[in-house]
Amino acid sequence: MFDWDDLRYFLAVARHGSTLAAARVLKVNQSTVQRRLTELEQRIGRPLVRRHPTGYRLTEFGEALLPQAQRVEQAVAAFEVQVDVSRRDAVGVVRVTCPEPLMNRITASPLLERFRMRHPGLEVEFAMSDRYLDLAKGDADVALRSGDTDDGVLIGRKIGDSLWAVYASRAYVERHGRPERIEDLERHALAGFDETMAGHRAAKWLREVVPGARIVARNDSVLGLLNSVKASIGIAPLPTALGDAEPELVRLFGPIPELTRIWRVLAHPDVRHTPRVAAFFDFMVEEIETLRPIITG
C-alpha cells in the first residue's frame, strides 16, 4: 500500500517537530522530507501531520499510527543488526568436496570471484574426490554431488543435470572405425573404472550393456577416464560437460538416459545454517543459471 521507507520521514517529523529538523537528522533536503511525507499521506488516504506556526504536530490519526511505525523502525533496526552480525561471522574457510573436473570448470569461471566479492572474509577450499566424502563426519562442509545419495539426512538443492554420453577420440575412430550401435562396443577397446569405482553408475551400465567388454585401461577418477579417451586408448562414457568441451573427442552415443542424474549442493543440517556454510550454499543456489553450463556443458 505504501513504501515502508516513507515511515522514516514520518517518524523524524514526529520526533523533531519540523521538516527542516527532520531533514538535518536524515541528511536529506527539506523538500525531500515534505515530498515523502505527502506521498505517504496520499497513499494512506488521511493526513498524518498538521502545520502550525511553531512547527508540525501529529493529527489524531497520526498519533494512533505512531506506535506501530515505531515498532516497524525497531524491527528494521533489529534486522540490520542481525545482517551485520551474520556478515561479521561469515569468515573462515568453507570446505567444498566435488570431482576434480568440476573444480577445474568452476575455478575457470567467474563464480568464485563473485563469491569473494560478496563474502571477502571467506575462502573456499576444495576437497576433490569422485567418491563421496562423509559430511556427517566433517570431511567437508558442502558437497557438489551428482547421482544418488543414500544419506537422507543431508539438506540439498538441485543445481543442474548430470548427462553422460559415450566418446572416442577422432584418432581412435580413424584407426578402428566408429561403432554404430551400443552392442558394437564389444568389438572395441574400452576405458573404464577400477575396483574402487566399481559401484559408479557408468561402471554398472557398461557391465550391463557390454557384458563382454574388453577393458584396456582402468581409472580411479572421471578425469583419468577422460585422459584415457583423449589418449586414444579406448572408448568410454563421460560427462557431456567434459566430452563436448574436448575438440579431439567425438560423441558416439547419448546422452544415455540410464546415466542421467541430477547435481545437488548438499550440506549436513548441523552446519547448513552456520554463516559461512549458508553463505556458500545460498550463493550456489542463486547462481544456478551460471552453474548449469558448467555442470551440463
Describe the structure.
There is one protein chain. The protein is an alpha/beta fold. The chain folds into three domains: 83 residues, Arc Repressor Mutant, subunit A, CATH 1.10.10.10; 104 residues, D-Maltodextrin-Binding Protein, domain 2 (3-Layer(aba) Sandwich), CATH 3.40.190.10; 96 residues, Periplasmic binding protein-like II (D-Maltodextrin-Binding Protein, domain 2, 3-Layer(aba) Sandwich), CATH 3.40.190.10. It has twelve helices and twelve strands. The chain is elongated, with a radius of gyration of 30 Å. The mean pLDDT is 88.
N-to-C terminal Cα separation, in Å? 45 Å
CATH architecture of the largest domain, please? Answer: 3-Layer(aba) Sandwich
What radius of gyration results from the CA coordinates?
30 Å
Average pLDDT, rounded to a whole number, is 88
Find the structural class using helix and strand composition.
alpha/beta
The name of the CATH topology of the largest domain is D-Maltodextrin-Binding Protein, domain 2
**Model regions low in confidence, pLDDT < 50 over at least 5 residues:** none
Major β-sheet annotation: 5 strands, mixed
Share of helix among residues? 40-55%
Beta-strand content estimate = 15-25%
Quickly count the domains: 3
Q: What overall form do the CA principal axes indicate? A: elongated
CATH superfamily of the largest domain: Periplasmic binding protein-like II
Please give the order of strands in the largest beta sheet.
4-3-5-12-6
Query: Tell me, what is the CATH class of the largest domain?
Result: Alpha Beta
Written as H for each helix and E for each strand, in order along the chain, the element string is HHHEEHEHHEEEEHEHEHEHEEHH
